[in-house]
């Protein structure tokens, strides 16, 4: 029995991207929530909740990029030139966010400036990730395995709205994380913020879904013209159930449930994306098999991944276990 390596590698990269969104999403979301909380003590608690884990969260972004380079070089060599500007700006945002995280802990007079850098870096990184997603969904012009579009093809109303959608998603994840990790007045404020932000998120999901179906005929056919609607219909139904569950959990003052259900929303959104583009790696026509590297290259890289990936997963699981529990004002901070 021969293993379909392109499918295996598509699953590995998809897993890496989803874990990145799940983990780095909530710590980028905390940067997006910073403007709503001016108190120095509250901001320090918010940062302390992610201080032990934020570096490790970005590991999976590296996994996704390295996996594309090794397993799907055509995707790597077309997706990057089609999105040079947003990808460079994303890296700039991550650098500013990381530098602000380190330097604000030592700053006194300039701490407010580093707070602004933390907010701006988080917002820029999240926005650019959404723009790249929108650019991918709307399609990239490829001829003979090369990008032949214009430098600003990525810039469109649809991609910008996808960027805003990712901002809202990450802010919701950050809010759910802080409900889980804090208590007292800060937790109460997060519960109050969770309800309106989830409504905005549901609206963004609805707009992106409708815009995708109306504006992209291939996606519309995938959902409604392929005879598989019955299989796909649970996705939007489960989205509504998750939103209802978040409202109920906030009302009943559950601590972990809002965050877990927001993660479920992200998973459902990711599932909807895969349904819309499968089996293409780059819509509208580049499939995972056409984009893949040689069998020997994928097999060689898979051996290393099978060894390294479990170590990364165990390490990340251990750091969350070690630093579990509530974070309170006055606890040892980030130094």
From TrEMBL:
The chain crosses the membrane at residues 6-37, 82-101, 113-138, 158-180, 192-214, 229-247, 259-279, 299-318. It is a multi-pass membrane protein. GO terms for cellular component: cytochrome complex; plasma membrane. InterPro entries: Cyt-d_oxidase_su2. GO terms for biological process: aerobic electron transport chain. GO terms for molecular function: electron transfer activity; oxidoreductase activity, acting on diphenols and related substances as donors, oxygen as acceptor. Keywords: Cell membrane, Membrane, Transmembrane, Transmembrane helix. Its main location: membrane. It is found in: Cell membrane. The keyword Magnesium does not apply. Belongs to the cytochrome ubiquinol oxidase subunit 2 family. NCBIfam families: cydB. This is Cytochrome d ubiquinol oxidase, subunit II. It comes from Caballeronia ptereochthonis.
């Amino acid at each position: 029995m021969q293993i379909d390596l392109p499918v295996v590698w598509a699953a590995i990269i998809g897993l890496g991207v989803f874990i990145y969104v799940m983990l780095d999403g909530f710590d980028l979301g905390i940067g997006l929530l910073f403007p709503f909380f001016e108190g120095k003590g509250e901001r320090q608690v918010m940062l302390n909740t992610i201080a032990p884990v934020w570096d490790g969260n970005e590991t999976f972004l590296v996994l996704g990029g390295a996996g594309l380079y090794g397993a799907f070089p055509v995707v790597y060599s077309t997706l990057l030139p089609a999105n040079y500007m947003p990808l460079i700006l994303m890296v700039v945002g991550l650098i500013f966010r990381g530098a602000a995280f380190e330097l604000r802990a030592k700053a006194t007079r300039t701490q407010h400036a580093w707070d602004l850098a933390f907010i701006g870096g988080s917002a820029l990184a999240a926005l650019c990730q959404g723009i790249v997603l929108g650019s991918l969904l709307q399609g990239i012009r490829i001829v003979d395995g090369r990008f032949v579009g214009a430098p600003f093809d990525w810039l469109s109303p649809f991609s910008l709205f996808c960027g805003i959608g990712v901002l809202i998603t990450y802010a919701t994840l950050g809010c759910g994380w802080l409900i889980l990790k804090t208590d007292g007045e800060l937790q109460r404020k997060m519960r109050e913020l969770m309800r309106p932000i989830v409504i905005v998120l549901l609206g963004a999901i609805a707009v992106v879904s409708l815009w995708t179906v109306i504006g992209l005929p291939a996606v519309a056919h995938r959902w409604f013209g392929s005879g598989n609607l019955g299989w796909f219909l649970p996705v939007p139904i489960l989205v509504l159930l998750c939103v209802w569950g978040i409202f109920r959990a906030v009302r009943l003052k559950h601590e972990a449930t809002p965050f877990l259900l927001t993660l479920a929303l992200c998973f459902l959104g990711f599932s909807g994306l895969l349904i819309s583009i499968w089996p293409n790696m780059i819509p509208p026509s580049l499939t995972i098999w056409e984009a893949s590297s040689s069998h020997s290259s994928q097999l060689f890289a898979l051996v290393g991944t099978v060894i390294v990936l479990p170590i990364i997963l165990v390490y990340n699981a251990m750091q969350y276990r070690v630093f579990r529990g509530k974070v309170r004002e006055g606890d040892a901070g980030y130094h």
